[in-house]
Amino acid sequence: MENKEEKKTKVVDFSQLEEGMIVAKEVQQNGKVLLRKDIPITGQMIKKIRNILFIGTVEVYDKKVSVKKKVANYEKEKQYIRVQEEFKEIAFKLQKTFRQLINDDEIAMHEVREFAKKIQSELTPSSIVIKNIVLYGSGDDSIYRHSVNVAALSAIIGKWIGYDHAKLNSLVYSAILHDYGKTKIDRELLKKEATLTTNEFNVIKTHAQLGYKFVKEIKQLDTSVSYGVLMHHERLDGSGYPLGLKDEAIHAFARIIAIADVFDAMNSDRGYKKKRLPFEALQIVKNESLGKLDYEYTKVFLEHIVDYYTGEEVLLNTNETCKIIKMNPNDLEKPLILKDNDFIDLTKEKEFYIKEVLI
Predict the structure, then answer these.
(1) Using one digit for the tens of pLDDT, what is the confidence trace for 256-314?
(2) Across the chain, which distance is largest between two alpha carbons, in Å?
(3) SUPFAM superfamilies under this entry (predicted)?
(4) For residue 5, what pLDDT is reported?
(5) Angstrom distance (rounded) from CA 301 to CA 150
(6) Domain with 24 in it: what CATH number?
(7) Ramachandran region of residue 219, left (φ > 0), alpha (ψ -120 to 50) or beta?
(8) Cα separation, 268 vs 165, whole angstroms
């Protein structure tokens, strides 16, 4: 139970804001959050809020409040931002590296190896990377940032499965390069916001073979890397592409990358679709494991990843902040939550749903 003293707050004018105060109630303008709850106020924040809103008040915690938890949350947010910036930087450099592959694959592969090292160095703790992808996805960058996210998730899954160092590296190379073939497709088609025609979708589907044809010629890479590139859109029931392979005919790397690929896509805004609700994305991955995605690998992925949601703060469709108490393995969209000291089972309280995971 939360200490009563920790609930004491006061309302101050913008002119009275001081660095170090902790926001007790988020400040919004036109639906956009300007100051998040439980975040320490900095000088930059004070300047920003005064520039945007000349007159107003902010509810902050009383100075008597113990701020250890608030500062811990702030430090955690800084970790998310650091990973986000690091992944953005890798994605930016990856664009240049993909162009270099055409002319000098030896130099380009040196960069890919360095990217693989950087990505894997950011995986501790895995919760930071997973939550970063849940929060931000890869946006409308369906090649470079998407490839970084898929490589990170694939590496995490590979570790959970028990891959050794050499096999893990090859898996990450394959994941980084899995959508290289998209660089050979018209950019306007990739960014099209309207529904694709059958012919247009068939063109986009060629990216797996285009990438494979190029990657398999890189002498420094094991053949398993190119198989992951070729088969990452294959599905166990034969409904995938480009070869319509089934079950064990699909290389293990491709089956791992497929899980990471689907999860990042579900958590990302694209021109033609909005990102899924965070727990809806988990449920879709689970549903796909029944015939399409590898069941055993998906089981390992979900069994581990649900642990990272327990204890996390989330925002309901009512804009109320709650905490995840226990995940429901039978219905991942409907965990047990704590709201204002009351337990709510979302399988029974159907008027509520989780719309956002909070930092």
Answers:
(1) 999 999 999 998 987 667 889 888 889 999 999 999 999 999 999 999 988 888 888 89
(2) 66
(3) HD-domain/PDEase-like
(4) 42
(5) 13
(6) 3.90.105
(7) alpha
(8) 30
